[in-house]
Amino acid sequence: MSKSKRFFSGLLTIVALVAALVVWSMLPWFGVLAIAVAVAAWLAFTRSGAIALAATRIGIAGLPQRWGASSVIVIGIAGVVGVLVAMLAMGEGFKATLSNTGGTDTAIILRGGSQAETNSVITRDQVPLISGLPGIARGADGQPVSSPELSQVVNLQSKADGTDTNVQFRGVGPAAWALRPKLKIVEGRKFGPGLREMVVGRGAQKQFANLDVGKQVKLANQVWTVVGAFESGDSNESELWADVDVLGPAYQRQAFQSVTVKLDGKNGFKQLSAGLAADPRLKLDAMTTHDYYAKQSEGLTKFLSVLGIVIGSIMAVGAIFGALNSMYAAVAGRSREIATMRALGFRGVPVVTAVMLETMLLALVGGIIGALIAWVVFNGHTVSTLGNNFSQVVFQFRVSPQLLWTGLKWALGIGLVGGLFPALRAARLPVTEALRAG
Amino acid sequence: MKYFHLIWAALFRSRTRTFLTLFSVMTAFFLFGMLDSVRVAFNSGGSVTGANRMIASSRLSLTQMLPYSLDPQIRAIPGVKKSSYAAWFGGIYKDPKNFFPNFSVGPGYLDVYPEFILPADQRKAWEADRTGAIVGETLAKRHGWKVGDVIPLQATIFPTKGSNDWSFKLDGIFKVKDEKQKAGQESVLLFHWNYFDEANDYVKGRVGWYILQLDDASHADRVSKAVDALSANSDHETKTQTEQAFNQAFIKQIGDIGLIVTAIMGAVFFTLLLLTGNTMAQAVRERIPELAVLKTIGFSNRSVLMLVLGESVLLVAIGAVLGLALAPLAMIATTKGSGGFIQLPSSLPPESWVTGLLLMLAFGVLAGLLPALRAMRLNIVDALAGR
């Protein structure tokens, strides 16, 4: 082949490969299944497929002899997939925890312009005005279901290394329990009104020291007794709860920070927003609690997934070089064998297919191992990070089937790139030279 | 190194293989450089100039403010050379995505932060302008601000006269000497605490934290006790710690970055080691007859061992140096691409270079050891006969 012809065929291969990778990354699962079925059918039912299958068998039968080189591919790809899945699982877990929090049937009211509770102020005289707004559901007692709340950031020691961490200490009104039906007391009891007692989330209890039921904690120079623990499966679990009328004075706060209300039916939110807008005494914003918490997870989730994909990509490049290296070596090591096959009449396509299938098989094994490791090690692993309220949000890594699938797709993509060039070389191997060489 | 040309020739015996290995070593060290510089940035906290600086903040919580009345009492403590204070403002410029720290500062703030370099005329103008502000050069560049511009900020915490609209006239642009700190410290906006105190609707006579500059860093312990004693058993107890400890405690909360970084690097290096080891094993396998010839003409076992080891170390070294040298490019790109949300140092810290180079040596030796031992133990007759 002349130099320019080789250059162009090389260029064409790379363009085709990039296009194939782009299509591959967007392919849904049934698309992948269709490709797999098509390849299997071709292998099983056509003559060239049968030949390719035979060639692949020869290659795979030789794998144990080349276990060193093959394990480079498997372990390299397992590393990439493991790291990628773990990073994405962290973002996923954080998002799930926050988007689980709140719902569309409750709304949170904050001072206009404030992004989070920490920044918001709602004065005492505004609370009855808010309760009087339309669109708020009424409880059994005929009173509007609303809970004026205060969330104070407090310092507690982390269990892991004893450093000070910011924890959210939430003062809630009596309606708070009805507003968060997911929240269940699992140990002890609720705090008594007017008492310096608190209940703590299971997440907070796991992450921070001295929060066992019955223990006493000194906060704001006062002694608080932990009387209960609750589970809610959302970001409330990272918090400590107490009576807002006890918490406020303890921290010299006259005002509240937010008011959470239960919405009345489908049009509740609309009515509430309209009512807020109509009252010039209330320069406040209302959001459904679902929207509020979803918005809070946006930044970090995006950051973690970008970081995961960047690191994953860099590692994938390394793994591709590793796979290329191993497969080139495998082809070189088997050059006499491949030349013999070619001399016997095996054409280009079966030879290419054989090398590709072998690489993809190794990649698949690597992908499965990596995904499994990520799942076993990280699924449910509890970590905490600083959320939007300057306080810790406790959440768990969440390795979803979707993520495992993404990991496998990456593995096969790496296998595709790592196998293609060596496969093409095998097909182009000059028969006579290869037979003569050593 | 009289055999250097031999090693060099052996290294490029199979070009494709060597380049592929080189590239994967390069990616691994590239990633290592990035991750390690993030780790160093996270762990270093305060700058060297801040070694004798302390921060006194509320013991109760980060968001609790302290009374202004502590100021003269703190200044009177022996060992405190200068002190100033600041309060978090948390304003937003146009869109929450443009986030940058902005806070009001007391007089003398620039004296406790001598690393902020503000031209004397701009400093004078700012000190005379009650509603003026100064910003770091990085931030000014990002938004295209010039001295004299009016910068509107949307308050998220502190309204003024019932409205969230604040605006500040830009009186000066400061620079920070230290390259490592530049990205972070040049992204802030500072304005006068007096103006903040007077114009905001909620808090009066309160500051967020005090900054103390000590005569001598060795007085830190005594001064911290003395400051904390001022407010003991009051409703505004303080916690005084070195600036470095303060920053670290804050950064630590973002998550266990160290663990994640170590895990990733472990995965990367394990792969790398395997890969290089495999390449070296292949190279030696292919060259068995050549090595036998070398031994025949009188190379000692030891020299053959060193030749193979040298080759593997050289291979890793070239890849590592290239990778480490390229890492800052990605760090600069990340800082730019994130619009300042992520601030990475624009050069690799010396600590990362040292760790990287040590790792490089260790991996070169480890990867080459088995093949080198095999080469050393070659039996000339068997090797030449191809057995």
Keywords:
heterodimer; A: 438 residues; alpha+beta; 2 domains; 10-stranded mixed β-sheet; 12 strands; 56% helix; B: 387 residues; 16% strand; ABC3_permease_C (chain B); transmembrane (chain B); ABC-4/HrtB_transporter (chain B); transmembrane helix (chain B)
How is this structure best described in words?
The complex is a heterodimer of chains A (438) and B (387). In chain A, α12 packs antiparallel against α13. Chain A has 438 residues and is of the alpha+beta class. In chain A, a hairpin with a 2-residue loop joins β6 (216-219) and β7 (222-231). Chain A folds into two domains: 23-99 and 297-437, no CATH class; 113-282, no CATH class. In chain A, strands 1, 2, 3, 4, 5, 6, 7, 8, 9 and 10 form a ten-stranded mixed beta sheet that branches. In chain A, 48% of the residues are buried. The mean pLDDT of chain A is 86. Chain A contains 14 helices and twelve strands. Chain B folds into two domains: 4-44 and 256-385, no CATH class; 65-235, no CATH class. Chain B has 387 residues and is of the alpha+beta class. Chain B starts with a helix and ends with a helix. In chain B, the strands form two sheets. In chain B, strands 1, 3, 4, 5, 6, 7, 8, 9, 11 and 12 form a ten-stranded mixed beta sheet that branches. The relative contact order of chain B is 0.19. In chain B, α11 runs antiparallel to α13 and α11 runs parallel beside α14 (350-376). Chain B contains 15 helices and twelve strands. Chains A and B meet through α4, β2, β3, α10 and β11 of A and α2 and α11 of B. Chain B: This is Membrane protein. Chain B: Pfam families: FtsX. Chain B: Its main location: membrane.
